[in-house]
Backbone:
């Protein structure tokens, strides 16, 4: 049976600052799980609202909590460093997570430096980052758009290594049909939002 949840970050604070918003989530169908950005980049940078959201999710009864790391890595070494930043921050916070997820997108750093996301580049970053999480014995996954997953990466390596795939493809069709599908970035819950909404198979 499918389950539903939101993925959130400090960018959602205009809604999530209100207790009424969390209560609305608790009343909605999007209460099965939640995924929170923990940090981003090689430096690293911490999402300022991670711990706040983590504990508020627990307060409304959400036990299935995961975290994601937005990657800006341009080399395999940078991707590995990001993965270790993710692990270290998780240990610093002392939180228990269902999944630790790499968020790999055509970000502003790649655009600024005219970095093309080719199959070689995508595989290099993703496998370096997730390989470190897997080697640490963590339950991990990848978030990416449908064209990156289907056209550049494929599913074989992920299946072989027990790493789940989370597809971002807005609309009524999921052309990946792996573990989880982000189907909109415009989900309102009562008067609060918009949120990214997800279905887990």
Residues:
């Amino acid at each position: 049976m499918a389950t539903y949840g939101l993925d959130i970050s400090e960018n959602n604070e205009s809604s999530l600052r209100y207790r009424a918003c969390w209560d609305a989530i608790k009343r909605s169908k999007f209460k099965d799980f939640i995924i929170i950005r923990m940090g981003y980049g090689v430096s690293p940078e911490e999402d300022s609202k991670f711990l706040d959201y983590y504990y508020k999710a627990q307060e409304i009864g959400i036990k299935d909590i995961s975290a994601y790391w937005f990657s800006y890595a341009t080399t395999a070494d940078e991707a590995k460093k990001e993965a270790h930043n993710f692990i270290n921050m998780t240990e610093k916070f002392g939180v228990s997570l269902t999944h630790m997820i790499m968020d790999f997108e055509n970000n502003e750093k790649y655009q600024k430096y005219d970095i093309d996301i080719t199959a070689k580049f995508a595989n290099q970053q993703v496998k370096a980052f997730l390989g470190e999480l897997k080697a640490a014995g963590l339950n991990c996954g990848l978030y990416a758009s449908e064209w990156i997953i289907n056209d550049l990466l494929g599913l074989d390596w992920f299946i072989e290594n027990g790493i789940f795939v989370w597809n971002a493809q807005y609309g009524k069709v999921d052309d990946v049909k792996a573990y989880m599908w982000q189907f909109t970035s415009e989900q309102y819950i009562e008067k609060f939002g918009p949120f990214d909404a997800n279905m887990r198979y």
